[in-house]
Amino acid sequence: MSSWGDFLRLRALSRARHRVTAAAVVGAALTASAVTTAVAPDARAATTMRITKVVVNGGKDIVLATAAKRVTVTATISEDSALEQVWLDLENRTGDRLNFHASRQATCSAAGTVKTCTTTLTLDPRSDMVHNSLAGPANWTAYAQAKARDGDFDSDYFPSVAVRRLVAVSGDAGPEPVRKGAVLTVTGRLTAANWNTHSWTALAGRPVQLQFCKSPCTSYSTVRTVTSPSTGALRATVTASADGYWRWYHPAPVWATAASSPADHVDVR
After folding, report:
1. Residue 203 DSSP one-character state
2. Which of 174, 165, 117, 166 is nearest to 145 (CA)?
3. What is residue 18's three-state secondary structure?
4. Which residues of the chain have a pLDDT value below 70?
5. How many H-runs (helices) and E-runs (strands) does the chain carry?
6. Furthest-apart CA pair in the chain: how many Å?
7. Residues 141 and 17 sit within 8 Å (Cβ to Cβ)
């Protein structure tokens, strides 16, 4: 009978995208083909264990700047026996190419037949395979595998949240105070965490909204939209008409976060 360690070693080599059940690892020697070949539908009936859900980062997108970030991964497992080992993974894969992979053994609740298993994984642009091209929801998945004391076993892939680059925008409106009807200039700069250079760099070619909220402020409205240049510098001129708050707002693309500059109050006299 093949051991749990045999399976882990083979899985590390193959990283197959198929379910492997207890029936697939019991019997003759476990080979790579057993890992890379999908098992018959009735083979899974040999085990009572079911991994029913895996949640990454509490279901919220992972926002990554330029430093390491720890992310919680939690699995829900239905099993009537004590759990012996549970491993939870986060990975990004394009076809057969593994772009990112983090794996760690989980700690599980002992009581009841529905158990919760949790671990923390680290994403670090400075040392891991994290680069700008991986930002967004595409190709991110979670993987869980578990073995119980009575021999039950289950494994599967689950959807993961997106991993997004953190964006920041600054802003300043002047002169302050300003005469009513005079020209008011609002400037700022749009930057984003760059996972390739491990630094904050200008974000070019992005639509950024200049927004105003009249005092007393209840909601912002968009006055105009500008496109950020290669320097990330933002600039717009408007006619001062009333006291209120000015800010820049960057709508979120699929690969980055939304961002707002701090509200800048301008007194119009």
Report:
1. -
2. 117
3. coil
4. 1-45
5. 3, 19
6. 87
7. no
Our CA angle for 58, 62, 66, nearest 5°, is 145
Which ranges in 95-146 belong to alpha helices (H)?
Answer: none
Region of 126 please: left (phi>0), alpha (psi -120 to 50) or beta. Answer: alpha
Token pair in block for residue 248:
């820049």
Question: Encoding tokens for residue 74?
Answer: 């939690």
Locus of tokens 């070619």: 205
195: which 2 tokens? 């996972």
In angstroms, rounded to a whole number, what is the distance separating the alpha carbons of residues 106 and 104?
Answer: 6
Identify the pLDDT of residue 182: 97
206-255, pLDDT tens digit by residue? 999 999 999 999 999 999 999 999 999 999 999 999 999 999 999 999 99
Six-digit token pair at 183?
A: 């020209």
Alpha helices in the chain (DSSP H): 4-14, 22-25, 32-36
